[in-house]
Amino acid sequence: MTGIITWDQATDIGGGRGRLAEDPAKSLARVDAALGREADINEAWRSPERANALAADYESGRSTVIAVPAEKSIHCRGYAVDTDDTSDAQMAVWNVHGWYWTVYRGGVLVERWHLEYDPTRDQHRDVPMTKGADGVWRITTTIEEAPMSYSIVKLTDGDTHIVGLSTGKNLRIQHPDHVDVLLRLKKPHDTTDTLETFVAVQIETARAYISYACDQAATVNRADLDAALAGIDRTQDAAVVKAAVESVLTAWAKKLAA
Predict the structure, then answer these.
(1) Rounded Cα gap, residues 23 and 119, in angstroms
(2) Tens digits of per-residue pLDDT, 2-46?
(3) What is the largest CA-CA distance in the chain?
(4) Cβ(149)–Cβ(34) under 8 Å?
(5) Is 51 within 8 Å of 75 (Cβ atoms)?
């Protein structure tokens, strides 16, 4: 993490929401895409003058909101945000992008709105990003530059939350065959294919599935797709099963596009 940064050193995060250091700004753009809208940010980067004033108010008892001087403030480093988007489902998204609660007292969370960014916990740092003419980082949107990236997050209600970062759409999936498909696609490369072939197939298959599911989940009965996936013989060699799964998804993608 950097030390205290100036306004000019911080990066605009768009929407009049303020500024952050570059890596947290990129991560926030990915969070925006995963949420399907700009995250609600009440404060991001904070000037040393404001941090010291808030700390003085807290230390004197004029304010009950916890605040620390600039030299200790993560806001002044551009690695913290204050947000109202902290429901359980929203926190699942924040967490996989490296954002976590940090303000506890006696083991009790006292500032649900305050999140800090840890790049070592960000599972999506490799997603291609482009800095616009307005200085705001966004996910690269061309097919050639932005392969479909997604995370699989288990929610407390038993659903599995699939986040399609390239599309900015979220999807809840309960069907075990569907979950198995996406978990299978996340498995690392082995020696079955060349790395180039493996990556190309993974990207195309993930894109086909998520594009179909996100667009159709609310209106289409997926019984036929469920049956096709369930009909695959899972006792075969892993490469054969994988190829069969990809064949089913590719066929459905073509059917959707027809």
Answers:
(1) 8
(2) 799 999 999 999 999 999 999 999 999 999 888 878 999 999 999
(3) 70
(4) no
(5) yes
**Two tokens, residue 129:** 């990003």
pLDDT at residue 148 tops 50: no
What is the rounded distance in angstroms from the CA atom of residue 106 to the CA atom of residue 84? 23
pTM above 0.70, yes or no: no
Position 149: which residue type?
S
Q: Is the dihedral of CA 84, 90, 91, 96 positive or negative?
A: negative
Q: How many residues comprise the chain?
A: 258
How far is Cα 140 from Cα 225, in angstroms, rounded to an integer? 30
Cα radius of gyration rounded to whole Å, the chain: 21
Residue 163 DSSP SS3:
strand
User: How is residue 241 written in tokens?
Assistant: 């099963």
